[in-house]
Write a structure and sequence with these properties.
Length: about 200
Amino acid sequence: MIEYIKGELTELTPAMAVVECHGVGYGINVSLNTFSAIQGKQEVKLFIYEAIREDAHVLYGFATKQERELFLLLITVSGIGGNTARMILSALSPNELCNVISSGNDKLLKTVKGIGLKTAQRIIVELKDKIASTGITEAETVSSISASVNTEIYEEAVAALIMLGFAQAPTHKAVASILKADPDATVEQVIKLALKML
């Protein structure tokens, strides 16, 4: 079992990080929270969850153990797979997710793509008591992403959303309208808003 991978960050998109460790490049699926935390770094350490299926070995990487812990809790809920759990952790920070679950806010959880009311309620019912043990504090900080050109942000956000499985046409439309309303929005903010619109 891989606990973590530490090495040089050679490639990074909002959905995937490539970390080179002793000459091997690992393609690791990341959430938006982890993307923000490691952006701009040369050396990174990602805590790993390894999903071994018949047709694939998939690595999910997290900047903190707490985020991985939440991911592991989410995939214990029936109907939540690795990609849905990553989608939830991209739409909400670990701190926000804990607050949503402990306060029973199924409406906010339902805004995440692929999460219906029943699934949102199931997540809250099954994880409410377990969340208390994660020890996630209010001090979750996400480094803001600075980019000089909006076209850069536009392209990166669209690419990330398409990678997450959204159709091209509505994605372009959503990202364009978000950047029109808030030209200074970061890639992360644009994607989070788009996740709620699509």
